[in-house]
Design goal:
single chain; alpha+beta; four-stranded antiparallel beta sheet
């Protein structure tokens, strides 16, 4: 899996995620720190998916 920050503005950070079978978009809202991913796992389970975990790691590494 390969994730990267694609866009950042005053409201949030958008990530492009290259998955094993499909590509996804993750978003983190800056004010609430809530995350969203458009993958089926996040949609149906309503919990943190592997794409969000990967994006959190990218964000942590970018900010350090």
């Amino acid at each position: 899996m390969n994730s990267s920050i694609s866009f950042e503005d005053g409201q949030g950070i958008f990530f492009d995620v290259e998955g094993e079978t499909d590509d996804y978009i993750c978003h983190m809202w800056k004010d609430t720190k809530e995350w969203f991913c458009n993958c089926p796992s996040f949609y149906f389970r309503k919990e943190e998916c592997k794409h969000i975990r990967d994006c959190k790691e990218v964000l942590k590494n970018e900010r350090n």
